[in-house]
Design goal:
Blueprint (H helix, E strand, L loop, with lengths): L3 E2 L6 H6 L6 E6 L6 H15 L3 E6 L7 H8 L3 E4 L10 H12 L3 E5 L1 H13 L4 E5 L10 H8 L4 E4 L2 H9 L8 E3 L13 H11 L7 E5 L8 H11 L5 E5 L5 H10 L6 E5 L4 H6 L3 E4 L8 H8 L4 E4 L4 H4 L6 E4 L4 H13 L1 H18 L2 H22 L6 H7 L4 H7 L18 H8 L8
Parallel strand pairs: 1-8, 2-3, 2-5, 3-4, 5-6, 6-7, 7-8, 9-10, 9-12, 10-11, 12-13, 13-14
Length: 450
Amino acid sequence: MDVRDIYGAGGRDLGRAGLPWKLGIAHVVSSLKAGDAEQVVVDLAALQRAAGHDVTVIAIADDPDGPRAEQLRRRGVDVQLLPKRRGFDVSMTARLVALFRARGISLVHAHNQQPLIYAAPAGWLHRVPVVHTKHGVSDDLQSRRWLRSAAAAFVDAHVAVSRPTAEMLVDQGQVSAEKLHVVASGLDLSRFAPDPVARARVRAELGISQQAWVLGSVARLSAVKNHALLLRAAAQALPEDGRLLLVGDGPERARLVALARELGLSDRALFVGGRHGVPQILAALDAFALCSIAEGLPLAVLEAMAAGLPVVATAVGGVPTALTDGYTGFLVPSGDAEALAARLTELRDDPALAARMGRYGRKVTLQRYSAARMVERYMDLYALLLVRQLHRGMPAVRPSDLLAYARSSSFLQRALGVSAAAEVPGRGWGAPRSDAAASARRRSPIALSI
């Protein structure tokens, strides 16, 4: 299997020094709520914007707004909310095409499954390179498989966030190996570091003794994260004055609260919900745990390592590529509560070991998982795809121009479910025709090369 790690091949100089031209980049996501993929997009888009590119982040879920939108706006990134209709929205691809055309987009980057289905064909119609990043595990792997397979045909490069994720994609037939690359996720490391002041403040706010041993986890309370395993291990490893801090919310909360009560952890397991200020929360911990059944490359592990914490995690997905067993923390088999409890107890009883692992983990993260490094890898890939496109040559008229020209057709508007009013404020279906579209009207249909 030919899976490529993007470490500079085919455009290192362009990617590092900045492309010799300004790009219009569209990142298409499901929503801008909290999550690993959304945080990656925030850092990726913001750094690309800081490098001088025009960057637009488009969220297409039926309720797409969320806290990441304001983070992006504060960093100068254009945010567009393009909510889809319930079910399969036949108008969404056309609306994306209109937006790409209005914004002068030169490359489309779709993140995870729903954006792949709608944005990949839209990027093809706009005749620009399309990149698709698979950040983690799909909850609906079978139900929309045919849609993903169809959309994948319009993608120029698929990206997995870890080599195990890449191998899984090929084994399941989701992507072809020749289009597949590996780019590890990165994060803004300036936000994470040991912080004694934040440690004391957060513990005081939560009513936790400054001397207590505190274990924590930051993850959505969903079945795939398997917090039940962590609760069972914590029942064995937590001392009487210790605390388990669970940051996040989700559909499993009520069941997990009941399990904590059943295990005698009601006073020691703190469910604090979704919170801002994760770096400060991490500073309050002595160790970090993640017990997922499946993962891509979880930012939570990288953040904990960057904060100088020893990490115990299940050996699933891309976790073993980031966490070295016995060096930066411990890996345990998925579902093994006894092994997890034993490793947590080891860290609890050996503060010197825990501190050493925390230092090593921070060093590894600083070296390998910065957002700047991630952006450099993606810009290398973008450059490679754009150079290939230049070598292939551009069509005389883009299909997106033809769609814009056809917007006056009432039949097309009814079919797509769009009105004559602009889908993009000031520049959508009702906007004035571009020079390219006017040129298309003057050409004979036989001369149009699509």
